[in-house]
Amino acid sequence: MTRGIWAARARHVLWRALSTLVGGVRIGGSVAPGPKVLVANHTSHADTAALLAALPPSCRPRFVAAQDYWFDRPWRRAVVTTLVGALPVARTGSGYDALRDAARPVLADGGSVVIYPEGTRSAPGTPVGEFRSGALRLAADLGVPLVPVGISGTGRVLPKHGRLRPEGVVLRFGEPLPATQCRDTSPEVVRAAVQALRDDSEAVPRPDSRLYTWLERRSDAQLMGAGFLWGAAEALTWPVMAEVYVVAVGAAQPARAGRVAASVAAGSVAGVVGHTLLARRGVRLPAPLTRPRMHRRARADLRRCGPAGIWRQLFNGVPVKVYAAAAGELGTPLVPFALHTAGARPARMAMAAAVVVVAGRWAHPLMRRRYPEFLIVGSAFFAEGLHQVIRRWR
């Protein structure tokens, strides 16, 4: 039992976090502790995720799954067992006997069994399909209550044969039906209870974040002007790489990612040229978060390759301002160096923009609602990446 509760807690935390990121789950009603059979409508694979997010870990839910499909391959069996807690049930022979034999030890241990009585996913927006009687028989035979559950919105989150979309989900728990009444209750009564609990009108999308709305209202000139300044500042002394601006703005505005990347590249080229001219005159600008090995590497590249040495910066993690300073100190020919920089910097910004555009096809709806969270998580990843780069060059 101890192992089961910890597994249930881990799944609950995982799916609650993922559901919150996608659009959130609003919960109506509650479930009492103890063994039970839960029956829910089924329009999407996201139904299981919503239930795992909504059910308290003490329920230790197990989801009835077809053994011949979900457990026929090792990787599929590992996924549904670990992430979902699927309960394999054979569909050959007597289907009900297999269900009862699989559910008995779970319920005897105080856990819960989740069944989708429709047997398959129905189309979003259609009434709940016909229910089979297996869940009622199971609750009556094993002496546990049956709890109806209505789920709304999952058909929009993950449509059948469709792609994941960020939307809100509403999940309601109904009044439990005692085991003593389950044998004399019609599946149609349970189906009607689930239908009454489901209300798609309440499964509304999460509104756009205020920060996203503010950014969306900025004009191209404002975004590109800020990008130019960011690129120039990074080439002079600013420690945050120029690609961060491309990703941060482009992720929220993928349609403008190309223009933003071009403005950042232009500012970076201007900043590199300005830094090189200052270094030629003996002006040493601060270079925070750099290491002596980085400066030695930049000088070595420029000595070996001449102005084309700036292309080595494309992948080696050395900040471009280090190459600009080295070019000024070594007296690298300015015009050829500026021309190579005008090729290398746009190439690097284009790679960042390409990643944003490709990822944005899926992530943009999520970004509209979770843009602040994206910036927080992205900043953490950037900080860790910067830490690793500095360690590498220490």
Index terms:
17 helices, seven-stranded mixed sheet, 394 residues, 9% strand, alpha/beta, 60% helix
Low-confidence stretches: none
Q: Globular, elongated, flat, extended or rod-shaped: what is the shape?
A: elongated
Evaluate the radius of gyration.
29 Å
Mean pLDDT: 89
**Strand-pairing-aware structural class:** alpha/beta
Helix content: 55-70%
Question: What is the number of strand segments?
Answer: 7
DSSP helix count? 17
N-to-C SSE string, H for helix and E for strand: HEEHEHHEHEHEHEHHHHHHHHHH
Query: Strands of the largest sheet, in order across it?
Result: 1-7-6-2-5-3-4
Q: Give the biggest beta sheet.
A: 7 strands, mixed
Tell me the fraction of residues in β-strands, as a range. Answer: 5-15%
Distance between the termini: 49 Å
